[in-house]
Structure formats: structure tokens, C-alpha cells
């Protein structure tokens, strides 16, 4: 439910098995940990700590009223199997040693200093939510968006419901060839009848039903051997009903002869591309229905248009040691809508975070946050003494940059959580007194029961439309529903 005051609990009972004790008494001190961010990194970290750190208590603090982060707002609506991890996260959240505190924002409702005073350890896991930009001429033209914005729009992230992308033109250009770009291509080119069975937002479904886009270009700066999308994503595109995939044969010069020497994952996806190329109709036969067109060896250098984007000018690249090297050749391709998909970066939400603005992530070594002012040798980080902020950690994309899939985040988060457990067990984090946790008086937060009420309402709304759920996108509505939930 939505709570404004947290009742004061009675004295903590002595646990049957107690590892941590106050130095001057026999009373147990329970490690109190705050995790900032309720996405995959936050939940995986909590899951590991619960299993490996006896008697620890964990608060998972999230700026939105709802949990699950990228799983809820990033995973494509037609990939429900990827969202099954929510079941595991729910088990973690419903552990009696865990509290979910939604609608509370670091840097706005509380500071990092406050958290460090009120918890024995703090883990920053709030992800990466800012787009990288190309920094080329006319990037601010109308109809130049980011794939992140487009995904947030159709997935119902609060604040993006009014994005209203212009789908009245005939073509969409996606700059970047990762899975996010392919997700956008697939959603735009999919049958609306198929999307009706997913949890895509109703406003996006209605907009896509009136879309006139029939061609999607997927443009990458390197070649087929360096394509970043996975074989699963490519297979889905090749099987898409009423859609033809059209490759450029010139992009595949000398590719087939390289296949025998490729690592197995790269070999399989390259074989699939070459097979699809061999089966496609001649270039003089126009594709029937919608068309998906991957284009390689191109880097955008200019957006062309007057007020609204009309084309993208590219430099033609060649490969040198796997790197894209620009040539003197140029190509301009007409388009009506552009989505950049060139990665994300985290932002610093509190002045006390040791943040690397250039890299877009927290300064850390293996998950331990580094001090701003280091002592000892200045030759290498490994030589520096007293280099870590005791009890402060980062995991997920905030620590590593936006790389990999959910499994990558899981492995990283488990590794950081293991550091936390080891630091408690070795007394690197000294339990010199209990910690009260976040002061919640006057702060309207959403409890786990509040989220369950929101969840139930979304499922109810979805069932009325034959969908798994209809996501609520207005925070005020969420808070009202949460406030009526029983504790």
C-alpha cells in the first residue's frame, strides 16, 4: 500500500543463528542493507545476499511506484518468456527480510549521505537511462528520436505516454544493429493482430494500427561479421509474417569464405544471414508487403531536412582490424523517421556519488565504489591503499555501462553481492551498532502490497481486452490504487 509513516517496530528478537554481534554485548546486530533500484541488478543482488548473509535485512528503494525496471519497461511485449524472471524477483520481494519502498527517489527524497548513515551498506543499482547521441548536424530535427524513447513509449514507462511518434511516413531508419533496434523494427513491422495478444500499451497499439511505415532500415557502421543482434532476434525477423528481409549483396563480399574459421555463435548467425541472402528474390523484384533492410558499413554524418528529417547522409566505411574506417564515399538514403540505437549511459543523481561523466557510470573496481580522493601510490589502482568507500557498491549497468543481456546483469550482480557478503564476514564492514533504515515519515512510499494492488488492476484491465495486462502509465493513478491497499 501507499504509506506515509512507518510504524516503529519492537526490539529485534534474537535470531536462532547469529553471526554478527556487538563487540560489547551478546545482542545480535543485523546487517541492514539498502539497494537503490528495483530492476534486475537490484533484485539479483538482493536474491544473492538473502541466501548468503544470515540475518541481513534489505530495503529495495525504487523511484517509480512499480518494480522490475528494464524487465517491465525494456523487454519487448512479444517476448513474454523473458519476463518470467519476474516470478523469481517476486519471491525475493516477499521474503520477510525484504521491504520494497517504491516512489522514493535518490537525490530527491533522500541523499546518499543519509542512506550511508542509516544502513550498514548501500548498493547503487539504478541503471542507465540517458541516450547516447551522435553529435552530428541536424540531430534535433523533428522525427529524430531514440530507440529508448520509442521502447519506453510502447512499453508504458511513465512520462513517455505522450511521445506520439510520427508513423505517417513510409520508412523508418534505425541507427544501430543491437537487439533493441531489432525489437523496434519487429514491433513496427509486426501484425497488429499479433501485438493485441501482448501487454503493449493500448495507445501504442492504436497508433501502430494506423502506421503507414512499410520499410525499416537497420544501419550499422561495421559488417555482417560484427552485427550486434543475436540469432534469436534475426530468426524472428526472418519469420515475420507479411514482411520480406532484403539484404545488400555487396555487404557480404568475402563473408562466406570466413565462416569456417568463426566461433560457433558467430558462425551460426552468419550462416543464417548468408542463407537468407541466397534465398531472396532478385533486386529487380520489388518486395511484397513490408520490408526489413539491414545495411552495413555506413555511419551517419548528417541528417537532411527542413524542420523534419527527410534523409540521412552516411559515410561509407571499410573494415581495418575489425574497426570501421571512413572512406571518401558518401550515400544518402531517404527516410521519414529516425531512431538512434547507439547505447545508453547512466546519470549521477546525487553529488556525493563518485561518477565518471565521460564513461557514464559510477567509478568502481569490481563493484566496490572508489573514493574520490585516493591515498598511497598513484601508479595503478591496485597499488592504492584505502581506495574504496566502505560499505558502498554499484552493480548492473550503473557500474559496468549498458552491456549484455539480463543474464549478464545477473552474473555481475551476483559477483558484487558476493563482495558485500565477504566484506561483512571479514568485518571490513564493521557492525558497530544497529542502523534504523530510511526515515519514511512524511514520505508517501508504495509498499509491496501497494504494488500488488496496482498489478491486480493492470491484470483486470488487460483481461477485459484479451491481454495479459494493460499497464498504468500515470503515477497519480498508481499512487491512488496503492493507497487503498491493505497492509
Automatic annotation (TrEMBL):
Keyword Flavoprotein on entry: yes
Top-level division of the source organism's lineage: Eukaryota
Gene Ontology, cellular component aspect: mitochondrion
Cellular compartment(s): Mitochondrion
Claim: NADP is one of the keywords in the record: yes
A GO biological-process term: cholesterol metabolic process
Single GO MF annotation: oxidoreductase activity
Binding site for NADP(+): 177-180, 221-222, 233, 404
Record key words, sorted: Electron transport, FAD, Flavoprotein, Mitochondrion, NADP, Oxidoreductase, Transport
Chemical reaction(s) catalysed: 2 reduced [adrenodoxin] + NADP(+) + H(+) = 2 oxidized [adrenodoxin] + NADPH
Pathway(s): Steroid metabolism; cholesterol metabolism
Cofactor(s) needed: FAD
SUPFAM superfamilies named among the record's database cross-references: Nucleotide-binding domain
Family classification: Belongs to the ferredoxin--NADP reductase type 1 family.
UniProt protein name: NADPH:adrenodoxin oxidoreductase, mitochondrial
Species, as recorded: Anopheles gambiae
Taxon lineage: Eukaryota, Metazoa, Ecdysozoa, Arthropoda, Hexapoda
Amino acid at each position: 500500500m501507499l504509506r506515509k509513516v512507518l510504524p516503529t517496530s519492537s526490539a529485534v528478537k534474537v535470531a536462532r543463528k547469529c553471526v554478527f554481534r556487538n563487540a560489547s554485548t551478546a545482542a545480535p546486530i543485523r546487517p541492514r542493507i539498502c539497494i537503490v533500484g528495483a530492476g534486475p541488478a537490484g533484485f539479483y543482488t538482493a536474491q544473492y545476499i538473502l541466501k548468503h548473509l544470515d540475518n541481513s535485512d534489505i530495503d529495495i528503494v525504487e523511484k517509480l511506484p512499480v518494480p522490475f525496471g528494464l524487465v517491465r519497461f525494456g523487454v519487448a511485449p512479444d517476448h513474454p518468456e523473458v519476463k518470467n524472471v519476474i516470478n523469481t524477483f517476486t519471491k525475493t520481494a516477499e521474503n520477510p527480510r525484504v521491504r520494497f519502498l517504491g516512489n522514493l527517489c535518490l537525490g530527491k527524497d533522500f541523499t546518499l549521505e543519509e542512506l550511508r548513515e542509516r544502513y550498514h551498506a548501500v548498493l547503487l543499482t539504478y541503471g542507465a537511462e540517458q541516450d547516447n547521441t551522435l553529435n552530428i548536424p541536424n540531430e534535433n530535427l523533428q522525427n529524430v528520436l531514440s530507440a529508448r524513447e520509442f521502447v519506453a513509449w510502447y512499453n508504458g514507462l511513465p512520462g513517455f505516454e505522450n511521445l506520439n511518434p510520427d508513423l505517417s511516413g513510409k520508412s523508418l531508419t534505425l541507427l544501430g544493429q543491437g537487439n533493441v533496434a531489432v525489437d523496434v523494427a519487429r514491433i513496427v513491422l509486426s501484425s497488429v493482430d499479433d501485438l493485441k495478444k501482448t501487454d503493449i500499451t493500448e495507445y501504442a497499439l492504436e497508433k501502430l494500427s494506423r502506421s503507414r511505415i512499410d520499410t525499416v532500415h537497420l544501419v550499422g557502421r561495421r559488417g555482417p561479421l560484427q552485427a550486434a543482434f543475436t540469432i534469436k532476434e534475426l530468426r524472428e525477423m526472418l519469420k515475420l509474417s507479411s514482411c520480406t528481409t532484403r539484404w545488400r549483396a555487396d555487404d557480404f563480399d568475402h563473408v562466406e569464405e570466413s565462416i569456417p574459421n568463426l566461433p560457433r555463435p558467430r558462425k551460426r548467425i552468419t550462416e543464417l544471414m548468408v542463407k537468407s541472402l541466397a534465398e531472396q528474390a532478385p533486386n529487380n523484384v520489388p518486395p511484397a508487403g513490408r520490408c526489413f533492410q539491414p545495411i552495413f558499413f555506413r555511419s551517419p554524418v548528417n541528417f537532411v531536412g527542413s524542420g523534419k528529417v527527410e534523409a540521412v547522409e552516411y559515410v561509407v566505411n571499410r573494415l581495418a582490424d575489425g574497426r570501421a574506417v571512413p572512406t571518401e564515399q558518401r550515400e544518402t538514403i531517404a527516410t521519414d523517421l529516425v531512431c538512434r540505437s547507439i547505447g545508453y549511459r547512466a546519470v549521477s543523481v546525487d553529488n556525493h556519488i563518485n561518477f565518471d561523466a565521460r564513461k557514464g557510470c559510477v567509478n568502481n573496481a569490481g563493484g566496490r565504489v572508489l573514493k574520490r580522493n585516493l591515498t598511497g601510490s598513484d601508479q595503478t589502482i591496485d597499488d592504492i591503499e584505502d581506495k574504496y568507500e566502505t560499505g558502498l557498491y554499484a552493480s548492473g549497468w550503473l557500474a559496468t555501462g549498458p552491456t549484455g543481456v539480463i543474464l549478464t546483469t545477473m552474473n555481475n550482480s551476483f559477483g558484487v553481492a558476493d563482495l558485500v557478503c565477504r566484506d561483512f564476514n571479514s568485518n571490513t564492514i564493521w557492525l558497530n551498532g544497529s542502523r534504523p533504515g530510511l526515515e519514511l515519515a512524511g514520505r508517501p512510499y508504495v509498499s509491496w502490497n501497494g504494488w500488488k494492488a496496482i498489478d491486480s488492476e493492470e491484470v483486470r484491465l488487460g483481461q477485459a481486452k484479451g491481454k495479459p495486462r494493460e499497464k498504468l502509465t500515470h503515477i497519480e493513478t498508481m499512487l491512488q490504487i496503492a493507497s487503498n491497499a491493505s497492509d
